[in-house]
Fold this sequence. Notes:
Layout: H1 9-12, H2 46-58, E1 65-67, H3 75-85, H4 93-96, E2 112-119, E3 124-131, H5 144-160, E4 165-174, E5 183-194, E6 197-206, E7 212-222
Antiparallel strand pairs: 1-2, 2-3, 3-5, 4-7, 5-6, 6-7
Transit peptide: 1-27
Membrane topology: Peripheral membrane protein
Family: Belongs to the THEM4/THEM5 thioesterase family.
Amino acid sequence: MLRSCAMRLRTLGATPARRPEATRRLFSSEEVVCKDYALPNPSWTKDLRLLFDQFMKKCEDGSWKRLPSYRQNPPQALQEFQTHFVDSKFKKEEQMSKAQQFTRSLEEGLGFEYAMFYNKAEKRIVCLFQGGLHLQGMPGFVHGGAIATIIDITAGMCAFSEGIVMTANLNIDYKKPIPLLSVVVVNSQLQKIEGRKLFVSCTIQSTDEKTLHTQATALFIKLDPDKPLT
């Protein structure tokens, strides 16, 4: 299932280029003038706010970095992504300008509420996730597809630290259902790199780490700027 992890540019506001270090504004201090949806809003529960504050304190010494999250791609990032990776006939610019990041397309509190933190030394992403009422599968619980989505974007961010990537494979073991509006911790780790292949592991646990909700492994492929996607 070749699902686009490349559109994580939405979150990063990154500018694709041949040099990976120049592509990811997410991992730099460069400002992007857009609303950042990875900040507290009235829908966040006390548990989510508490965890967010704890990780913000970890950011003070520079070991962790909070990652911003936007609803739409900055125009320049979108244009340069298409220039490097997509045939010009693929989509018209006016069409793509209306596209929104899937996980940010619902009203605040109803869908995906999350904040991500990146540890460069550990090659790890931690996502604090609260599933809203419009993510329901079985009554009272988060839909398995929504869980797969939050795993995909969290694991993808680990891989994205190495370059622009797409999801090639995602294997998920659902252990315990996740109640709606509960807060869980999605922990993703870059395990190894083999050429353009990046292997990532991921778990979802309760905030007290006593309950393992989900385990997953993922394979991402680093894109080649000389080979358009279409």
